[in-house]
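Recall from the previous chapter that SMILES is a line notation for molecules. Here it describes adenosine-5'-triphosphate.
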Amino acid sequence: MDIFRVLTRGAAINKKADGVSKGKGVDYSMNKAKDAKPTEREEFQMAKELDFFRNKRIVNKVSNLKEDEGTAVAGGESDEDAGKDAEENEGEDDEDSLDFQPKITNQKEANALRKSYKGNVTGEDVPLPIGSFEDLITRFSFDKRLLNNLIENHFTEPTPIQCESIPMALKGRDTLACAPTGSGKTLAFLIPLLQQAIDDKETQGLKGLIISPTKELANQIFIECIKLSQRIFLDKKRPLQVALLSKSLSMKLKNKVISDKKYDIIISTPLRLIDVMKSEALDLSSLKNIIFDEADKLFDKTFVEQSDAILDLCSTKNLRKSMFSATIPSSVEDIANSIMLDPIRIIIGHKEAANANIEQRLVYCGNEEGKLIAIRQLVQEGEFKPPIIIFLESITRAKALYHELMYDRMNVDVIHAERTPTQRTKIIERFKSGELWCLICTDVLARGIDFKGVNLVINYDVPRNAQAYVHRIGRTGRGGRSGKAITLYTKLDSIAIKPIVNVMKQSGCEVSGWMERMSKLTKKEKQQLKNGQRHPTTKDGKDRAQISTVPQIDRKKRQRKQDMIEGSKRRKYRDSHKDEEKEDESS
Ligand SMILES: Nc1ncnc2c1ncn2[C@@H]1O[C@H](COP(=O)(O)OP(=O)(O)OP(=O)(O)O)[C@@H](O)[C@H]1O
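With both inputs in hand, we obtain:
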């Protein structure tokens, strides 16, 4: 069957005459522009307490503020000019010129606000949340340039996690924060971090460190941080400096080509940071804040030693620590309590639930062959609407599905740990621009990555556990949009599927009687899952059939053809990317 033809029929894409997207002038109907308004129906469907992104127009007073200090944000001026303006404007942000009234002034208002978004905040002496970004001005002398940068980027109202965690951080409190995927946790830690770096302008050297488990996520946080730190100068000549600890920067730091005193905020993966620290190329003695994004990942068995090592390297007294994730198991809470001082615990919604904007579905496929058939059925029924992400449990299986769908002439590519950083970045760019419709990947992309318009997530293989499920499906339904997640399972997944059913229940999905009954894990099954044994008889994944519905003989022929195409592609790719590869190696 020529899946491609069916796919293009079912995909419901609008070919725009004016070609909005970068790629081939194709715009997915579901891939809305950043500031596109939801339809009335969508708006209606969004439960009030789940509308984290109340798209209120920029309040008048804030737009007045922008006009008042237009020079500091006007585009096209040189950094130096901007620096002068910024310097001249300093001290003007007194309360007289900005008579904003804070929205949340007392405990009663705070309680009502928390109830509206199902926020549960506990700890000693918990500060009031903010009800709007304006509240920051009156309560914390928030920097006008930072507020402008928020507005310029269309961040006009804080999301619930931002309402809570920003004041906690600005009050200097350690925080453990859990909020749904796609609900704005990145800004929740970046906004106060930037404000604190501005407040602490006398200090030369690193003040804030953000640790992220993957390069892709570190890069994404860096980009957000750059957006918010535009045109902010700490004194006449010195802009607020943010850096991603890339291979090339770490080399420069090690070789003393760049002074480590240059940066105010650094974003890094654990290993890269430890590597730089081993060479004593980064001084952490002025560090005031450390943030662990995807904290449960950073404190699980893969990363815990590295995260501990990082904490050991941070010698500053009164170092403020924060942990953020969409899933915080109790083991991580225990760690948080052991390393933090009087932490405040913020939970938005239910701790083990998925984002409620995501429609979740399970599809029973009997066996491996059934999974491919299910994909083809989704295509035929018009449900396979790009952009789509498909998750698999291993590199081998991701590659196999990629070849299978390529053979069906679908517009797919694959990302896993064996692809080079350049390849990964390129594929992500193509997917973001709409040029690539379907991204196949392993769990390397399961966490944190913000692809705005993803329509559908397919778990081709059942995720390892409930947390992995929540993060994987969280690549859709982000920023207040709705999304769909389909999990394919076979008879081998009879145990592994149970935690997923439980997440569906916690997230308010309708769960049928049989699912309800099957969701209960026996003691033995719990132990099995703990040991990584996810189906009743054999060790995890070992006897899964290969991904293919094609007879052996055809498969071999097809493989030979595929190898030739791949070989030729690789040669072409190598020729055209020689320089980049060299750069990768040297950086
Ligand atoms: N106050 C806001 N107003 C409008 N959009 C926002 C706001 N805060 C964040 N966003 C947008 O929401 C999207 C999701 O945010 P973010 O990536 O921080 O989610 P997250 O909670 O960290 O998700 P995950 O758990 O998957 O990492 C981003 O596109 C971001 O730009």
